[in-house]
Prior knowledge:
The chain is mainly alpha-helical. The chain contains 18 helices and six strands.
Amino acid sequence: MGNPLFARKPLALLLEEMKGENRLRRVLGPVTLTSLGVGAIIGTGIFILTGVGAHDKAGPALILSFAASGVACIFAALCYAEFASMVPVAGSAYTYAYATLGELFAWIIGWDLVLEYAVGSATVAHGWSAHFQDFLKSFGITFPHAFSTAPFDFNLETGNFLLTGTYFDLPAILITAVITAILVKGIKESASFNAGMVIVKLVIVMFVIAVGAFFVDPKNWQPFAPYGLTGVSFFGHTLFGQTGPNGAPLGMLAGAAIIFFAYIGFDSVSTHAEEARNPRRDVPIGIIASLIICTVLYIAVSAILTGMVRYDQIDINAPVAQAFAVRGMPWAQRLIDVGAVTGITSVLLVMMLSQPRVLLAMARDGMVPESFFGAVHPKFRTPWKSTILTGFFVGSMATFLPLRVLAELTNIGTLLAFVIVCAAVLIMRKTHPNAERPFRAPLVPFVPIAGIVCCLVLMFSLPAENWWRLIIWLAVGFVIYFSYGRRHSIMARLRAEGKATS
């Protein structure tokens, strides 16, 4: 028997578990899954991170930053689609890692996904609050400053934290509570609510592109790449490109690493494979279609934004809405704020929808207490306890941590997940060459290797402190795994019964 840390969960066992009464309800079709993907992707990336990426990192070259991130995501998306068609169960990359790389890697990726979805949700809630308050201001309503944002922020120029004079972000708490209640109610209701919001925000995005094109000044695209086309570092040491005041890399690739957060929604589609009516066909469609649609829209909006306003004058909190305000269109600003609030709400809904399903998969495997994280509501058929806990966790982070810290922490966790999924495809092709693959990633091994390389380059383009935050997060995860998960996992139980295979 091999090392139990690398014991792989058999595919047959994964599929057998889906026949039990604790299964989630299969109600999602290809259009709904694509809508969930678009709902998770379009929102914070267009309405907020475009400002941060252009102002702080890339300038007008943000257009290429979105293209670079999109290419990296396409490679990873093809790998996700292959696994989702093979193993149509909850858990996403966690489940794939357990079947290919073994228990320890499964725990690492599962714990990493907790970081991705929970911290990502907090980032989105923070952005929702900023746009909601901007919308109120357009009607002359000022939200009390003491409850308007996180109590501290991060200064890029000095590299230090500073107090904002507030207590907490009340709007972020309120929207998190509302979304949590909707998610507990049921997946069908959540998906329908999301579909309505997706339609609204796509209309607004098309409005931004169509109307904003008339106000583009090509002079604002000069210089196109004020910080260069690179921006790669290794643990705080810049290898290629310029360096910012706090030692962080600058440039097009550095911008791609920061705005990568905008793309993470497509992988959330795979977490709902267990709720898809025909997951072997519909989940790959949802993953790939949502990514292609959103990549095209991101590139178009970033071109319009940097053409309307010079990159160093872009507002980082509400960049698109403020761009139209600067051009003397307050009515358009209000309309965009409506689209932003709606769009960001759908992102928050899908990300908070995904988190409990990862915990559900881990609970089924004994990695975390099944009585709590594996509990499915008898009427709504949703993982209600972990959904409520997720809401509490997200609300707490959103109200106290600043946007820049949350966004960068989410990015590095997501990139690590993509690296592992791409590696898992290579391994699975070798270990299970004859397994049924309704969808096959093309050009293997090129696609997964290219995905690994692209994601690693973007990881190294993030500031060094993000690596340390990731290491600390993983260290906490190892403590939980070795003190609880390793002894209670399903593979440990099978070993005790003499049924395990490595």
